[in-house]
Amino acid sequence: MKVAIIGCGKIGLDFHAPAYLKNSNAEIKYFCNTSIQKADAAVKRFNCGKAVRDYKEILEDPDLDAVSVCTPNTSHAQITIDFLNAGKSVLCEKPIAATFEDALKMQEAQRSSNKILAIALVNRYNNCVNLVKAYIESGKLGEVFHVYASFRDYRSIPGLGGAFTSREASGGGVLIDWGVHFLDAIMYCLNDPKPLTVSAETFCKLGKNINDYVYKNMWAGPPIKDGIYNVEDSVVGLIRTTGPVISFNGAWAQNIDHKEKYIDFMGDEGGIRFEFGNDFTFYTSEDEKLISYKPGFEKGNSFENEINAFVEAVENLIGGGDASLISDLPSDINTVIITSEIMQAIYDSAEIHKEVSLV
Ligand SMILES: NC(=O)c1ccc[n+]([C@@H]2O[C@H](COP(=O)([O-])OP(=O)(O)OC[C@H]3O[C@@H](n4cnc5c(N)ncnc54)[C@H](O)[C@@H]3O)[C@@H](O)[C@H]2O)c1
């Protein structure tokens, strides 16, 4: 299977390319980046493929089977749709798109092309997340009635004034960047309950005067003093579903010197605190005693699991068949689109300062 990496930045080169190269069924044919120097550097670094500047140059290559779309959020939809329409399968980075409307267009292109469209919501390939899901499904927690996610950091807005803090480039702030992983992992572990209502507020506060903002972390590039800051740096919300209630509190930046990233699954017989990206603790009672423990599991490599599953699905498609039957990928667009619907409802609710109904 021949693939192209579209977008030779951090995720494309540090995660997608190495994982394809480890898979003996995949070969990287192109590295594409609008600034061709980055594509050239990728060819040199991995010693394979050809550098291209414009993805449209390779759309019609009959030899190309699939692409990884690793470009900024607001470009996901157009690039993905163009490749699907050209008959290529696509693994698109998260979030699906900047808006639910665009995500629906991507879903439509997948259906009409009958190619595979997977979204790189990588937690679905994380061994720890899968063990949390198995605990919930086995009934160890009893009835899970509330799930709470916290993704907060102390004065840690990324690339202030650049693409991360420009709605035009990113579609949003901490919700679309960090929150998407948390909400999607929750939906996955709960087997996608139907969202009923969403109530949320977003705040664009700490970085709004770029020159005065004092920071602890400035990841993703130095602050651009005359840049743009029009996304949320914190968000809070509550989602009612046909299953548990989901609540969350997220902040790239807050005036509290504390960093926490976890999801609490609260059941009437047991509870789980999942320390995001690490492990989890299970709490319950047994023989009239309170007990808690951290289950062991093989850590694995979520990105490799994700790429291997995508390659296998595309290989099956090349072998002949119907994408809608072949793709039982946990990150198939038709499964994960619900996360995009919820995120849109969060932004909509925040904009009108009212609850949004999804039924
Ligand atoms: N799954 C994860 O955990 C994870 C982690 C980081 C980033 N991401 C996602 O990956 C995407 C990229 O993030 P990143 O951190 O690698 O960003 P980045 O800025 O490091 O890389 C993006 C690259 O895409 C290039 N580019 C922009 N438009 C292009 C186009 N039309 N054609 C070709 N190249 C183009 C840019 O020049 C840049 O080199 C984002 O959507 C982000 O949300 C996911």
Strand portion = 15-25%
- Rg, rounded, reads 21 Å
Secondary-structure element series: EHEHEEHEHEHEHHEEEEEEEHHHE
Distance between the termini: 42 Å
Commentary on this structure:
The chain is of the alpha/beta class. Helices cover 33% and strands 25% of the residues. The strands form two sheets. The protein has a nine-stranded mixed beta sheet, with helices on one face. Strands 3-2-1-4-5-6 form a six-stranded parallel beta sheet, sandwiched between helices. α7 crosses α10 (333-352). The termini are far apart. Bound molecules: nicotinamide-adenine-dinucleotide. Nicotinamide-adenine-dinucleotide binds at residues 6-12, 32-35, 38, 55, 70-73, 75, 93-94, 120, 122.
Element layout with pairings:
Layout: E1 2-6, H1 10-22, E2 27-32, H2 36-46, E3 50-52, E4 66-69, H3 76-85, E5 89-93, H4 100-113, E6 117-120, H5 127-137, E7 144-152, H6 167-170, H7 174-189, E8 195-203, E9 234-241, E10 245-251, E11 260-267, E12 270-275, E13 280-286, E14 289-293, H8 302-318, H9 323-326, H10 333-352, E15 356-357
Parallel strand pairs: 1-2, 1-4, 2-3, 4-5, 5-6, 7-10
Antiparallel strand pairs: 7-11, 8-9, 8-15, 9-10, 11-12, 12-13, 13-14
Helix pairs in contact: 1-8, 3-4, 4-10, 7-10
The protein binds nicotinamide-adenine-dinucleotide (NAD).
Residues 6-12, 32-35, 38, 55, 70-73, 75, 93-94, 120, 122 line the site of nicotinamide-adenine-dinucleotide.
